């Protein structure tokens, strides 16, 4: 069964995009059919997959404006999965969607646009990952509306928990009003540095707070993960022996095992 996972956290720089690209590549390496949807106008996930965001003809923008479906808008990533690219054009989509005539119903429709597009390709993929921007806007709402669950990357440092209550509140509101079945897929500890006691403390603190909502896999701070985007490829292609690559494969295995248990 297809599973749509939004990768979200209102904080920037916590590893959302890194997780989106590398989890997509790792799931593809496990022979799962994967579509990565970039809904951040910065287009970092797009570029990180080796797709030039400034050269694409179709993007998630065309999908959100109802001008094309996902299948016509996809590009192929380095690493064996499909990508719906994003670029700066997308920043305008929000305004255009909201300014359409008959605002109330249009807005309601607009929030469900991505979901409708995903339903139409449900037999083509095993996993759809959505890389969210670090803000709560119409784009993020679209993602959270379309998703079965949310994966929340959290940086193992002092301010990790800051802003988390905002996110939890947002998810609760989503469940009440727009997407009653939205689940928390899990919290993912990122940029973990085992030489730093602070990192260890925060990782342990997160475990206390969130227990079984936490992925067992911890993503270490790893320079290859930071370098991979400049090569336009997931770390698995750049250096599959690196700690970063191994950690994301482990995460993909954990995710797949969980879903295969649940569907049995
Ligand atoms: N585990 C990691 N180790 C080292 N650098 C990382 C790691 N995860 C992310 N980074 C780097 O940190 C920065 C922010 O990560 P990114 O995934 O873009 O965060 P977000 O999408 O949440 O803003 C990027 O420069 C990225 O390359
Ligand atoms: Mg990002």
Secondary structure: elements and pairs:
Blueprint: E1 3-7, H1 16-29, E2 34-38, H2 44-48, H3 60-64, H4 70-73, E3 75-76, E4 82-84, H5 89-98, H6 103-111, H7 113-119, E5 127-131, H8 138-146, E6 149-155, H9 164-178, E7 183-192, H10 197-210, E8 214-220, H11 223-227, H12 235-238, H13 243-262
Parallel strand pairs: 1-5, 1-6, 2-4, 2-5, 6-7, 7-8
Antiparallel strand pairs: 3-4
Structure commentary:
- This protein has helices at 16-29, 44-48, 60-64, 70-73, 89-98, 103-111, 113-119, 138-146, 164-178, 197-210, 223-227, 235-238, 243-262, and strands spanning 3-7, 34-38, 75-76, 82-84, 127-131, 149-155, 183-192, 214-220.
- It is of the alpha/beta class and 264 residues long.
- The protein has one domain (3-262): Rossmann fold (3-Layer(aba) Sandwich), CATH 3.40.50.
- An eight-stranded mixed sheet has the order 3-4-2-5-1-6-7-8, with helices on both faces.
- The radius of gyration is 17 Å and the shape is globular.
- The termini are close together.
- The chain binds adenosine-5'-diphosphate and magnesium ion.
């Amino acid at each position: 069964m297809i599973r749509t996972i939004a990768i979200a956290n209102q904080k920037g720089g916590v590893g959302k995009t890194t997780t989106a690209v590398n989890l997509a590549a790792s799931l593809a390496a496990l022979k799962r059919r994967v579509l990565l949807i970039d809904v951040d106008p910065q287009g970092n996930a797009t570029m990180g997959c080796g797709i030039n965001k400034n050269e694409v003809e179709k993007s998630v923008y065309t999908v959100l404006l109802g001008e094309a479906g996902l299948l016509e808008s996809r590009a192929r990533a380095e690493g064996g999965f499909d990508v719906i690219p994003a670029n700066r054009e997308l920043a305008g989509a929000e305004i255009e969607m909201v300014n359409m005539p008959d605002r109330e119903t249009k807005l309601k429709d607009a929030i469900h646009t991505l979901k409708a597009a995903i339903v139409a390709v449900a037999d083509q993929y095993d996993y759809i990952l959505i890389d969210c921007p670090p803000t709560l806007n119409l784009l993020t709402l679209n993602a959270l509306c379309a998703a079965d669950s949310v994966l929340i990357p959290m940086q193992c440092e002092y301010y990790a928990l800051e802003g988390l209550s905002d996110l939890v509140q947002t998810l609760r509101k989503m469940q009440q009003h727009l997407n009653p079945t939205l689940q928390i897929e899990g919290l993912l500890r990122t940029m973990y540095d085992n030489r730093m006691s602070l990192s260890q403390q925060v990782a342990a603190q997160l475990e206390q707070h969130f227990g079984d909502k936490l992925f067992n896999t911890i993503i270490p701070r790893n320079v290859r993960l930071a370098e991979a985007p400049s090569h336009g490829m997931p770390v698995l292609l750049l250096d599959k022996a690196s700690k970063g690559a191994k950690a994301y494969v482990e995460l993909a295995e954990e995710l797949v095992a969980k879903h295969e248990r649940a569907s049995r």
